[in-house]
Specification:
Elements lengths: L4 H4 L2 E2 L1 H7 L42 E9 L2 E3 L2 E3 L6 E6 L2 E5 L9 E6 L5 E6 L3 E14 L6 E8 L2 E4 L11 E3 L13 E11 L2 E12 L5 E6 L1 E4 L4 E4 L6 E4 L4 E3 L10 E6 L7 E3 L2 E4 L9 E13 L2 E4 L2 E4 L17 E8 L5 E8 L3 H5 L2 E12 L2 E4 L2 E4 L5 E2 L13 E9 L2 E9 L7 E12 L4 E6 L6 E14 L11 E8 L6 E9 L15 E7 L2 E3 L7 E4 L2 E4 L4 E4 L13 E9 L2 E10 L1
Parallel strand pairs: 2-28, 5-8, 11-14, 12-14, 18-21, 19-22, 25-27, 30-33, 31-33, 36-38, 43-45
Antiparallel strand pairs: 1-23, 2-3, 2-7, 3-4, 5-6, 7-8, 9-10, 9-13, 10-11, 13-14, 15-20, 16-17, 17-18, 20-22, 23-24, 23-26, 24-25, 26-27, 28-29, 28-32, 29-30, 32-33, 34-35, 34-37, 35-36, 37-38, 39-44, 40-41, 41-42, 44-45
Pfam family, one: DUF5666
Keywords: Signal
Organism: Sapientia aquatica
Length: about 600
């Protein structure tokens, strides 16, 4: 398990794709021609490059795999990849793919992107690395040695130790979901999903989490790691190390890709609907993750440097790299073992990656602003509390604004480009630019339906946030995803939140791939940031009291008093009561930036 992101942080065809994506957002966190900005197994001097295994593997192309570090379109390990109205989204749920909405992607999740020939995302598939109940919570565990040693709180999931990360030089800072706001939110026996980087220190394998989310119930067990002790006749192997090792029985399991031969050293993700019992697990799916790179392939990988000889000879995640043609950034004097990097280039006939790009995590420019967001502001309460593409943002900590702009320009519907750092599950903005949405930019459209034509599959809405009360046309994608309802709910007066991309051929027209149905607003709601009522959407992170009738709850870090609010729940909602982890929409009154009381609450 020491070379986990041998497979997870590769980018095929990066050099060609960099040319294709230049129009993705008109700027942002980096072009696809840059190497990925996070990933790799191991951190500091304790990481191991690994060999990537000896089994046969199917070659891949036009594929990106990594951690979501922002939204512009989709930002994976610091690089933007343009979405389109036809982009589909899925989640690896219970061992198979299930459709997902664009709005359900989150920071820190591991995602596999399939790109078309123009570099746009055809499909984005979210794949957790661990799933299962929390079997232990440890207040302090030491990982690393010497100057790299750190004492951290930890949890154990599916037999694997999990720690969080607050250091952007070591990979993406941990984000939380499902009602969690920090590792201290996690309780024993909680069912969770974890995305992260697998590392090893002092012979102990552990996951440095990039995203931890609570799941409402036990749905199964997912474990990821490197095959050891493979027995071909019995079709068994182990994942993990030492006392935490798990024996996997893969008899009858589906192996993906089908052409793969299992062998020691291959990185795999296994799935079972059962729980681990006596350190054993019978699985139904084995996904082999390491890609095969042929000569002349354009490849990007990331991780800690090992076997360093010189800039022209070192190893990253099992690939020998020659970066002699790349100039180091000014604040990095030399490469060394343990330095976390991303590299991109071509594979030559001897199997060496000849780098044309080199991305160094410890570089000042990377660690200062590791998160990038671009989109429409929503859920605006104050400069200290709003969201962009569903991510909570604090724009009150003296960020640099674009010329002629101030915090007063932060209102619902404003289209912004934000760079910042992730702290306490909130992006603290260091730079905020107000821009005109570039071609192919993703925007949110919130408003009430004026008309719906089922024949042309078009909807007109009065967009309360985008261009303030302007009537716009939404052309629904053939694969449009509906949240909190169905096409039958596309009725006049219905309040909706649509995610779409502005048409390049028709004015005030958007190609929409996600429609979220919202509750009927009170008469006091005027849309935008106007009062006295505003609309907030999100996941409850705390309730008071902990048991009994809830009198207040926390949403986006704000305490909302329930009072005499109407509490509604959509058909198929997981709950009809307010609870931690429940997704809700709430119309609330605000005074001096503090939420006072809800008038309407809808549970999903």
């Amino acid at each position: 398990m020491k070379n986990y992101l041998n497979y997870l942080r590769f980018i095929v065809s990066l050099i060609l794709v960099s040319l294709m994506l230049s129009a993705c957002s008109g700027g942002g966190s980096g072009s696809a021609g840059s190497a990925v900005s996070s990933g790799g197994s191991g951190g500091g001097a304790t990481g191991s490059g690994g060999s990537g295994g000896t089994g046969s593997k199917a070659a891949v192309s036009n594929t990106v795999s990594g951690t979501i570090t922002g939204f512009g379109s989709i930002v994976v390990d610091g690089q933007e990849y343009a979405e389109s109205a036809s982009t589909s989204y899925a989640s690896e749920f219970k061992g198979t793919q299930h459709a997902l909405a664009a709005a359900e992607l989150n920071l820190g999740q591991h995602v596999n992107l399939t790109l078309d020939s123009s570099g746009k995302v055809v499909q984005a598939v979210v794949i957790p690395d661990l799933e299962g109940p929390v079997s232990s919570i440890t207040s302090t565990v030491t990982v690393g040695t010497g100057s790299t040693a750190a004492t951290l709180p930890a949890i154990t999931v599916s037999g694997v130790l999990v720690v969080t990360n607050s250091d952007p030089t070591q990979g993406p800072v941990t984000a939380f979901g499902g009602g969690y706001t920090a590792l201290t939110s996690v309780a024993l026996a909680d069912n969770v999903e974890v995305h992260g980087l697998l590392k090893s220190a002092n012979g102990v394998d552990y996951v440095q989490a990039t995203h931890i989310a609570k799941e409402p119930t036990f749905i199964g067990t997912r474990v990821i790691g490197t095959i050891a002790n493979y027995n071909a006749s019995a079709n068994t192997f182990t994942l993990g190390s030492g006392s935490s090792a798990i024996t996997i029985n893969a008899t009858g399991a589906t192996v993906e890709p089908a052409s793969t031969t299992l062998a020691n050293g291959l990185v795999v993700s296994v799935w079972s609907s059962a729980a681990i019992s006596n350190s054993s697990l019978t699985v139904t799916t084995v996904r082999v993750a390491n890609p095969a790179f042929g000569a002349t392939s354009f490849v990007g990988v990331s991780g800690p440097i090992s076997a360093y000889v010189s800039q022209s000879s070192f190893v990253v995640n099992g690939l020998t790299v020659d970066a002699s043609g790349v100039t180091l950034p000014g604040d990095v004097t030399a490469l060394s073992n343990g330095l976390v990097v991303g590299v991109a280039g071509t594979i030559n006939s001897s199997g060496t990656l000849v780098a044309s790009k080199l991305h160094i995590f410890e570089s000042d420019s990377v660690k200062a602003e590791p998160v990038f967001l671009q989109g429409s502001i929503s859920n605006f309460v104050s400069a200290a509390n709003f969201t962009v593409r569903g991510v909570q943002v604090d724009g009150s900590q003296s960020p640099t604004f674009s010329t002629g702009s101030t915090a007063a320009n932060l209102v619902n519907g404003a289209f912004v480009r934000i760079k910042g750092t992730l702290t306490n599950n909130t992006v603290v903005a260091t730079k905020i630019d107000f821009i005109t949405p570039p071609a192919s930019a993703v925007v949110n459209l919130i408003g009430q339906i004026q008309s719906y034509d089922a024949t042309t599959n078009t909807v007109t809405i009065t967009a309360k946030d985008f261009d303030k009360n302007q009537v716009v046309t939404a052309v629904l994608s053939s694969s449009v995803m509906y949240l909190n309802g169905t096409a039958a709910n596309l009725t006049v007066g219905q309040l909706v939140d649509m995610i779409g991309i502005e048409s390049t051929t028709a004015a005030n027209t958007f190609n929409v791939n996600t429609v979220t149905f919202l509750p009927t607003p009170p008469s006091t709601w005027q849309g935008g940031s106007n009062g006295p009522s505003i609309l907030l959407n999100g996941t409850i992170s705390a309730v008071t009291p902990a048991t009994g009738t809830v009198t207040s709850f926390v949403l986006h870090g704000l305490t909302i008093n329930v009072g005499s609010a109407s509490i509604l729940s959509v058909t198929g909602a997981t709950s009809t009561t307010l609870a931690v982890g429940e997704k809700v929409s709430a119309f609330v009154t605000v005074a001096n930036g503090n939420v006072l009381t809800a008038s309407v609450i809808q549970i999903y």
